[in-house]
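Bench notes, afternoon.
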Amino acid sequence: MTAAHDLRRHRVVRDGVGLHAVSRGEGPAVLLIHGFPQHGWMWRRTMADLAAAGFRAVAIDQRGMGGSDIPAGGYGKAELARDAAAVLDALEIERAAVVGYDHGGGTALALALTEPERVTRLGVLEYAPPGFGYEAGLTAAPDNVNWQLAFFTHPDVAVTFIAGKERELLSWYFQHWSVDPDAVPMADFEVYVRALQRPGALRGGFMQFAAVFEDMDWFKARAAETRLSMPCLGIGGAGAAGAWPEMALRALADDVRGVVIDGAGHWLAEERPDALSETLLEFLAPDRG
């Protein structure tokens, strides 16, 4: 991700599940949460930019992905939020800005809804939670380009057809819903392939999709009780979610702004890393004092 002397690696165990995280820099903390099919590696450029600007960037590997353990269950967003909180506890971080991408946006939202006093700012990238927009991707329709969302809700079936073809899956994934189909360099592509080829990792990733119905009930119930008051930012790629994350956040929070990044599809950190860092730094500037 970056030079070894700049990067600190962390191993946190929560309820018997080992969680891998990396951190870089000093200053106000920013927790970065990846989505599928990536892991914490996706934030390598963002972490460098945040650290250079005076932040302490922390990127976690969610359970089932990257260097974290792959338990059989516990993939609902509320449980993943407890994993994220455990990493913050282990690093002695009381409060942090939290930025989540794709399914990591759901984890970030769940953390903000359960521990709002701990989240100074919330960024949600290319995601709307179940019950507030995500479920539209589960519906068969001529214009639905995300049919895989429904397929992956049956992880054991999906693994049966895809196991051994992780490279082909990722090749399709990174060209799907992108503006620049070559945005992921080959060296980084191989990092993602190796991570997904770990025994059990394919199913671990799909389990985040399988939790969608559990997540839908949880988000609806929690949103009925809690409205977010911290500053929130929804970011979408012009060639993918667009203003969708912002619109979803407006149903859940009071202080919301939105940014659509031109020249990017779904893969914001890969297609437009500089624009993403610039957007995040502008949003996080007040936390830096």
